[in-house]
Automatic annotation (TrEMBL):
It catalyses: D-alanyl-D-alanine + UDP-N-acetyl-alpha-D-muramoyl-L-alanyl-gamma-D-glutamyl-meso-2,6-diaminopimelate + ATP = UDP-N-acetyl-alpha-D-muramoyl-L-alanyl-gamma-D-glutamyl-meso-2,6-diaminopimeloyl-D-alanyl-D-alanine + ADP + phosphate + H(+). This is UDP-N-acetylmuramoyl-tripeptide--D-alanyl-D-alanine ligase. The keyword Cytoplasm applies. InterPro entries: Mur-like_cat_sf, Mur_ligase_C, Mur_ligase_C_dom_sf, Mur_ligase_cen, Mur_ligase_N, MurCDEF_CellWall_CoF430Synth, MurE/MurF_N, UDP-N-AcMur_synth. It comes from Flagellimonas eckloniae. It comes from the Bacteria. Its EC number is 6.3.2.10.
């Protein structure tokens, strides 16, 4: 079956499934493989559960006329996604960066949806499987598709760009994330800039934070761009007003009062404003969209429980976002502050240095109450309380319950620090 024939079939059955536990009637099941699973073995079950067809790449599992045998299922999914993307008129915006990708994507989606039929990456399905699935969710009526692209190694953004073939691009920032995979900060900059490496030679449009020196250097005299800035008036001027705790920004004498905490979310809001302006969304509609947006999934959420006011930022962490969170917490005009910080993963040989830096920062910022959880933090030199595991921390809290106050809870996803809520 040719790619074009497969696409015709997809238009008849425009629902893709890669997990037999989530089969929907008349979907097409793609039998993906992973280190610990082989989707080919579940093709028969997928058809039995209601899938219209199963795409397989092992002949022994092509047991029905509704099984379509291909050379490589993943490659077929990716090529089908690009083919579908090019068969539709939707304009594609791709974004990547070290921090803030998902929040920025959600904000852009909220803003552009005020005027256009818009689809966006669901959750953080931003890898070599998630990007194709997002592209395949484009409908004939879709006008704008917002595609989040994540990576932890060089070459991944280049590959995802070749699949999505974006018309527009934005990089949130270059931070200390996935240092192990990228090979240090310079590797991060090179890896994330692969989006520029696709956009610029193809004369595609770039949005930028003009106050970011790396972005300014990378884009140089490239003409096909627009940016936002607090001070450089050759770009669209957006002013930071405050973040105590919620971010307030102002442009064209209009104030936007968000439900996002932390100054680090200012640039995320600015990107959404900039794209709204570019796509001619009225400023009054941009204001409504951003002010209505509420963060979810443990991303900078404020939670009130049993006398505690909690900044729950336990979805992920790296040295850059951890530093920003501490700086924001320090500036909050409130007393009785306590830090509960968990290990930051994927830092490789920099892990010891970066965890010690965060401990030192907490001390230098004047915090007096802090708990550090995880093996990396346990190996730091500090007078703060530290625990090798969450279970050790749990036992401590059970014996020494926290009193009411303001908490910042932040750590990498694998630490699952949202479990602290059950202990308050």
């Amino acid at each position: 079956m040719t790619l074009e024939e497969l696409h015709v079939l997809f238009l008849q059955y425009p629902s893709i499934c890669t997990d037999t536990r989530k089969i929907t009637k008349d979907c097409i099941f793609f039998a993906l493989k992973g280190p610990n699973f082989n989707g080919n073995k579940f093709a028969k079950a997928a058809l039995k559960k209601g899938a219209s067809y199963a795409i397989v790449d092992e002949e022994e599992h092509s047991t029905s006329e509704r099984c379509i045998l291909v050379d490589d299922v993943l490659e077929t999914l990716q090529k089908l996604a690009t083919f579908h993307r090019n068969k539709n008129t939707a304009r594609v915006i791709s974004l990547t960066g070290s921090n803030g990708k998902t929040t920025t994507k959600e904000l852009i989606s909220q803003v552009l949806s005020r005027k256009y039929k818009t689809i966006a990456t669901k959750g953080n399905l931003n890898n070599h499987i998630g990007v194709p699935l997002t592209l395949l969710s484009i409908k004939p009526e879709t006008e704008i598709a917002i595609v989040e692209m994540g990576a932890n190694h060089q070459g991944e953004i280049a590959f995802l760009s070749s699949i999505a073939q974006p018309d527009f691009g934005y990089i949130t920032n270059f931070g200390k994330a996935h240092l192990e995979g990228f090979g240090g900060v310079e590797g991060v900059i090179k890896g994330k800039s692969e989006l520029y490496d696709y956009l610029i030679p193809n004369n595609k449009y770039v949005f930028l934070n003009a106050d970011d020196p790396i972005q300014q250097e990378k884009l140089g005299s490239y003409i096909n761009k627009s940016g936002y800035s607090q001070e450089n008036h050759q770009y669209y001027t957006i002013s930071f007003v405050s973040a105590n705790p919620f971010v307030v920004l102002e442009m064209e004498n209009m104030r936007i009062e968000t439900q996002l905490i932390g100054k680090y979310n200012f640039s995320n809001c600015c990107a959404a404003v900039l794209m709204g302006k570019y796509f001619n969304v009225p400023l009054s509609e941009i204001k409504i969209a951003i002010e209505k947006y509420q963060p979810q999934n443990n991303r900078s959420q404020i939670i009130t429980k049993n006398g505690f006011r909690i900044i729950m930022d336990a979805y992920n962490a790296n040295p850059t976002s951890m530093q920003a969170a501490l700086e924001n917490f320090e500036l909050m005009e409130t007393d009785n502050k306590t830090l509960i910080l968990g290990d930051m993963f994927e830092l490789g040989q920099d892990a010891e240095k970066e965890h010690q830096s965060i401990v030192n920062l907490a001390r230098n910022k004047g915090f007096t109450h802090a708990f550090f959880v995880g093996e990396n933090f346990f190996n730091t030199e500090t007078s703060f309380k530290k625990f090798k595991s969450f279970d050790d921390f749990r036992k401590h809290l059970e014996e020494n319950p926290l009193k009411t106050g303001n908490l910042l809870i932040k750590g990498s996803r694998g630490m699952a620090l949202e479990r602290v809520l059950d202990l308050l």
